[in-house]
Amino acid sequence: MFIFAENSAMLDKSHKYVSCETCQVRKDSLFSSFCTEEVHQLDENKVCSFYRKNQPLFVEGTFSRGVYCINDGKVKIFTIGESGKEQIIHIAKEGDVVGFKAMFSDDPYKLSATTLEESNICFIKKEDFLSHLESNPGLLQTVLKELSKELGERAVFIKNMAQKSVRERLATILLILDGVYKDEMINLSREDLANFVGTATETIIRLLKEFKEEQLIEIHVRKIEILDRKKLLREAGS
Predict the structure, then answer these.
(1) Do the first three CATH levels of 8-152 and 162-235 match, i.e. the same topology?
(2) What does pTM read for this prediction?
């Protein structure tokens, strides 16, 4: 769908404009229930921007100015530990809206968001998004459901990951990423994969080699193809 960066100087001015009326991923976003008039108003309020790989949307410790909707591309949501190492919490994909949680609390962002690849993202200013919430009970209900769902899933995820071995965690993350990338091969650097699993890059490289030898996955340079989801699910301890 869409996005505008809080640091516009970092954006390529040759961004692709996306109309909300014709946006192919709006049906998968918070705005899926909007009527024609609401979609038109949303389209007037948003700004589309092109992001290069590794460009930040927002940074931990800063304050929210609005929300971001991903039309094309992937975004990692992460925090920085005391050692300075990233811990990836979530990978946002096309149709996902990010950044609205901090907006409600008026607190600084507790997490950072950075593109994993070239992305087309739209930005809606805080006041415009809040105006949509006030005028659209359906959107408010969808946002509340999304927040409740995420809190529940995040709690289960953290609990399960804490009890798994590194090998089981990698299998779990690969299955999650398979759902994020859908029909594409998983395209994540070994460092980012390690930061998602919560281990060293060297450990990830070794385990990926083991998974390949066991014919669970195939490796195409950087990309990872899942060959046997059932076996990978068993490796995940599920």
Answers:
(1) no
(2) 0.86
